[in-house]
Amino acid sequence: MTNPSLDAYQQVFGMAGLANRAGGYNGFGIQLQQQLQYDLSFYFNNVPPVKIMGQKAPSTADPSVLPVLGNWDLVWGPALIEEKNEKGVPTGVADNALYVAKCDAVAFPGGPTLPAYVVAIAATNPSSLYDWETEDFAVSEVVNWTTYNPSNFAPSAYNGNDPYISKGTATGVSILLGLESPNSAASPNTTLQQFLAGLHPEPGTAIIFCGHSLAGALSPTLALYLKENKDLNAFGVTLVYPTAGPTPGEAAFASLFNSKFPPLPPGWQQQSGTYQSWNTMHWNDLDVVPHAWPVSELEKIATIYGQATTNMTASILNTLQKMAIDDSSKSGASYTRIQNQSLPGQLQNSSSSSISIKTPPATLQDYMLQLSVQHVSMYNGIPATGPDPQVTGLILPQPLPKPDVVKLVPGVTAVTEFEMIMKIINQIIEWVFSHYTLVEKENANIEADK
After folding, report:
1. Which one, of 64, 73, 25, 26, lies nearest residue 45 by Cα?
2. CA distance 156 to 164
3. Residue limits of the Fungal lipase-type domain (predicted)?
4. What is the CA radius of gyration of the chain?
5. How sure is the predictor about 446, in pLDDT bands with cuts at 50, 70 and 90?
């Protein structure tokens, strides 16, 4: 078979995006897991059949996928979790998700051709308030990495010497390590660590951890934990490909990660593409999310798309920026990115659903639509629609192939981009009120502006 059109970096990034598919649906946990498994059967071989969707046998990847993504098998999962809110009510969305795929021969640019496993972790689900509050935004408290036990941890005072991660990152890694592959999925009834312990990979086999957004923080942290726990000793090469991630920890943690995960294995040659570095967090410089949580970067987010043209929008954005800076600073730890590479973003006048976007933003919707485009579409590429020309993505030239018709598991409903944006806006306004009852002090006169 000829090599796929996407190089190894792009294949891995594409698989991280596939883990996010569950974020586009509403339903109960088991239904969402079946939907994700069914979706993955279009892209991978040997996905166990989802019987409720009429599948009788393990999948064969769609012919449109192989020339682009390559020939991959699903070997573990997918597993996901639907959390409960503070009242014990299920969230109705996938709050975290994870799967593992394998290819027998991956041609690494500047390196050898090796068997490879990819551990793909889902991004923040924009519909999940749990993700936002418990994982993404939980940065005011920190956890000492030297004593971190995923099954039993607590925040502690920052001592200025040891490496620390945010409480949110510690929570996310704990959740991922606790996920079990369901009975009807690949390698059923095992956790990721149990699955890895049962592998006997060929010499030199690579394992790659990847994820976008929230998973851009979780993937390097999970990889470092498993490496230090000696769970990855059977692999010849361990790599991470995080994208668009918020910062998981402070300076000592970043230094520790960088020392354990150099940008290239020994003897591999650096490539020319800005997206072509392993163990490096790649981020669009117009993407708000990777500006969290270094204070110097947070200071840019209110005006990253230009000064808002209405007092209401400017006030809300300034308040959000101040809240983020306050939370980032509270523990005394100085959040510091792991080794990283910025990619040049480009402001867009419409969303991927052809919704018009004003730049600079006139409303919070304009800001959030632009954020959505910059955080997702600009990495994947934007197909031409109507008068809008095609936009080449920062990592993928264009989105991966997809089925002509999306079939839904009974009980699952799809979420449109606009619905997702409106949920985010509502969650942000609720977050403002829950954190600052006297928002007027920041001139965020939300009631008057409604």
Report:
1. 73
2. 9
3. 191-293
4. 21
5. very low
Residue 440 has pLDDT above 50, yes or no: no
Which of 13, 37, 190, 234 has the alpha carbon at shortest distance from 118?
13
> Residue 14: is its pLDDT beyond 70?
yes
Q: What is the mean pLDDT of the chain?
A: 90
Q: Which residues neighbour 448 within 8 Å (Cβ) at sequence distance 6 or greater?
A: 312
pLDDT in tens, 119-140: 999 976 655 444 445 445 689 9
Question: pLDDT by residue (tens digit) across 164-173?
Answer: 999 999 999 9
CATH annotation of 8-285: 3.40.50.1820
CB 122 within 8 A of CB 98: yes
* CA–CA separation, 105 and 51 (whole Å): 31
Please state whether beta strands 206-212 and 164-166 pair in parallel, antiparallel, or not at all (unpaired).
unpaired
Q: Which two tokens stand for residue 21?
A: 């598919």
Count helices and strands (H / E) in the chain: 14, 11
What's the first-to-final CA gap in the chain, in angstroms?
A: 58
The confidence band for 94, taking pLDDT boundaries of 50, 70 and 90, is confident
Reported pTM: 0.93
Collect all residues with Cβ–Cβ distance below 8 Å to 296 and sequence separation of at least 6. Answer: none
Residue 113 DSSP class: E
- Domain spans of the chain? 8-285, 295-333+346-393+416-450
Categorise residue 127: left if φ over 0, alpha if ψ from -120 to 50, beta otherwise: alpha
Query: Exposure of 285 by Cβ count < 10 A (0-12 exposed, 13-18 middle, 19+ buried)?
Result: middle
